Amino acid sequence: MSEHQAANREQEPPVSPAWSRIQRARHMQRPYPMDMIEKIFTDFSEIHGDRAFGDDEALGCGMARLDGEEVMVIGNRKGGTIKERIRRNFGMPHPEGYRKALRAMKIAEKFRRPVISFIDLPGAYPGLGAEERGQAEAIARNIMEMSRLRVPTISVISGEGGSGGALALAVADRVLILENALYFVITPESCAAIMWRDAAHKQLAAEAMRISAPEVAAIGCVDAIVPEPPEGIHADRVNGIRLLGDTIRQHLAEIRNVPIGELIAARQKKFRNIAQFYTE
């Protein structure tokens, strides 16, 4: 190591607990949503296209079976290679992706199948084409329609749950978050760039934003935290995904037989009250 490299390393701040959790959520070996879907469900039959513009490869959805019961599953795709990641916008959906997801949810509603979504994305794709094709409208419509979907719904934040791009798939009866996952309005790097005009303050932003699983659970943004193996789910995929599957089964069993009117009323009340606080 050169003297210059050694000096730079000495200047690097120690990793904070908040930033350590972010590193785990973004770990390259952490399983992506479709990896989890493949291990938890069987007989996955994918649905393509939004019937309006095209098929967004950043988002996959289709019918599957959970212990023999038919369900609709939705999850974003990031890709394993550089070419796949570019083709899938690093897992960030276009508006046609959200419209495809809504089309799948409406099919599930028609056939009375529960909807289970998996989320690991820093936000919706922010490109010019996405904005021209109605990104904001697509997200808003998904939020509205999910709030009144007449089937049981479960959402799992498995890595990063970023902004409206995540919320468009997470207005559910039960919102689960993995122990090392994150749920935020904006990434710490972007927050630091806005607040301090320097993304280097990302660790400070991560501490201030309170975006870890225990912190968002404390203010009611999620319903339950799914424990991970001691070193993280990336270090023990088999047991980590098995535990997630068992948690999904538990929560689905709890909401499956609730009258749909009660389910929708409770869902809407929960999201109206999320993160509210009062001062004198």
Question: Uncertain regions: pLDDT < 50 for 5+ in a row?
Answer: none
Structural class: alpha/beta
Query: Please, how many helices?
Result: 13
Global geometry: globular
Quote the distance from N terminus to C terminus: 57 Å
β-strand number:
8
Strand content: 15-25%
For the biggest sheet, the summary is: 8 strands, mixed
Strand and helix order: HHHEEEHHEHHEHEEHHHEHH
- What's the pLDDT, averaged over the residues? 90
> Radius of gyration, rounded?
19 Å
Helix content: 40-55%
Topology:
Elements: H1 3-11, H2 17-25, H3 33-40, E1 42-47, E2 59-66, E3 69-76, H4 82-87, H5 95-110, E4 115-121, H6 128-132, H7 135-147, E5 153-162, H8 163-167, E6 174-178, E7 182-184, H9 188-195, H10 202-209, H11 213-218, E8 224-226, H12 237-256, H13 260-273
Parallel strand pairs: 3-4, 4-5, 5-6, 5-7, 6-8
Antiparallel strand pairs: 1-2, 2-3
